[in-house]
# Entry
Amino acid sequence: MKNKKNKPSGFPFRRYTQLLTAVLYNANLGGFITGKIYKGDTKGVCVPGLNCYSCPGAIGACPLGSLQSGLLSSKYRIPYYILGTLLLFGLLLGRLICGFLCPFGFLQELLHKIPTKKIKKCRATRILSKLKYAILVGFVIVIPLFKLAPGFCKYICPAGTLEGGIPLAITNETLRSMLGFLFSWKTFVLALTLLICVFCYRAFCRFICPLGALYSLFNPISFFGIKVDAAKCTRCNACVKACKMDVKKVCDGECIQCGECIKSCPQNAISYGVKYFEKNKPGRK
# Structure
């Protein structure tokens, strides 16, 4: 077995990046005190990860919410700007965005550190991982087009409830008096999601998040991310066994490119890099 002394320990850089991302996405700290949504020029620009537009601290737009709003307001026209933005993010980074640039993913990982018995990945979790694609089609595309409502944001998104709904309800008395069943439902969804994440690693990302489902389509062809040197790889499958996501191979659609596989590889065959110029791709000689 080759020496692993040069491999990063615990990947602290990823933790710092996740924390910094959460702060940068929500840099309007005064909004949490006043209960007012920031409406500056940057609010027209999408951030890469899931971050609610209605969060009092948010200085950018959520790409998922923007897509739904675009479908609603365009009356069957194609929202080229947001589709182009998502295409750019996907082609550049794929689900590396989920692993490094998503505040709600960071929260899920922190919750999973609570010492309890954990649900390990299995056939059932792999089947459930397909649910997010159905949510992407049904709630993000179909409902906005035919029901004239931002389906995912309105009925499901726990990140929106945590970042937007609850802070605004606390600081805005007028809004608080108007809350009804829908807010209670979404608070329940949030509480259930956070509870499940204590026992099941990044359950929201794996089973529910339609943004992750969208980025997963680009994961195998993204410009930058995890790559495997086929000349070194012995197909021992240690990387897949070490991964907490429901992957079948490194950098497939379920991989969030967190880098845990790098530490597990006995042949030092896995690394971060520019995949576009990679010559020794798995399966090629």
User: Anything to note?
Assistant: Residues 181-199 form the longest helix (19 residues). The first strand starts at residue 224 and ends at 228. The beta strands are 224-228, 270-274. The chain has a mean pLDDT of 90.
